[in-house]
Amino acid sequence: MIRDATPGGCQLVIECLTPVAWKDHNQWATQAPTFAQWVRRILGRTAQLCESAGVANPIGHTRARAYLQLSEHVSAVDARQRPLWLQRTSRRSGHTMRVPTQLGRFVYSGPVADFAPLLRWAEALQVGAKTAFGCGVIRWQFLGVPEKSLQQNRKLSLQASPKITRAVAEYERCFAPHQ
After folding, report:
1. Above 70 in pLDDT, residue 108?
2. Euclidean distance between CA atoms 172 and 152, whole angstroms
3. List of long-range contacts for 54-59, beta carbons under 8 Å, 24+ apart
4. Sequence-separated (6 or more) residues with CB below 8 Å from residue 138
5. In this structure, which CATH number among 3.30.70.1900, 3.40.190.10, 3.40.630.30, 3.90.580.10 belongs to the domain 12-175?
């Protein structure tokens, strides 16, 4: 069962290092994303990549539903975003495409500690649309949580999702830039 071991939850900061783009209800999103939207995009990207590779999704349907349900209890605290238009011209067709993206720093509060493995996964895979063009690179951190609680949550999160932890380690081993 996914649970947050930090009493009252904590705060999470997600920072976009490259523009993030995604559609919501078939329209390009221009508003600050809710935490549930981040979680849906991370789960969707994972499912898409696993299907393309012909491998089983390490998250699974039960855990994905639990993540989605828990994400609804996380609220936005602050959003500092900057819209940015991504423009790309296809070499094949010559067609120019403009995609609304956003850069920013988003702060969320609530039971976020158990999302650590999912967020680590998102850091490795990127989130949203146009990831092939470098979009969707994020960095995240918890705020205002005592180190002891963070260590306890890391242990719980790693115990709760060993498949994700192994998959991230394998991804990093195979695809991380070599020093």
Report:
1. yes
2. 24
3. 58/161, 58/163, 58/164, 58/166, 58/167, 59/118, 59/161, 59/163, 59/164
4. 14, 15, 16, 17, 20, 119, 122, 123, 126, 127
5. 3.30.70.1900
Token code pair at residue 94: 């010559």
Helix, strand or coil, per DSSP, at residue 179: coil
> How many residues make up the chain in this entry?
179
| Calpha distance 125→162 (Å, rounded) | 17
CA nearest 45: which of 137, 163, 107? 137
Measure the CA–CA gap between 87 and 84, rounded to whole angstroms. Answer: 10
Given a contact cutoff of 8 angstroms between Cβ atoms, the answer to whether 143 and 69 are in contact is no
64-74 pLDDT, tens digit per residue, is 999 999 999 99
pLDDT tens, 114-165?
A: 888 889 888 888 888 888 778 889 999 988 665 555 555 554 444 445 555 5
The pLDDT of residue 148 is 58
Q: What pTM does this model have? A: 0.74
- What's the pLDDT tens digit per position in 120-129? 888 888 888 8
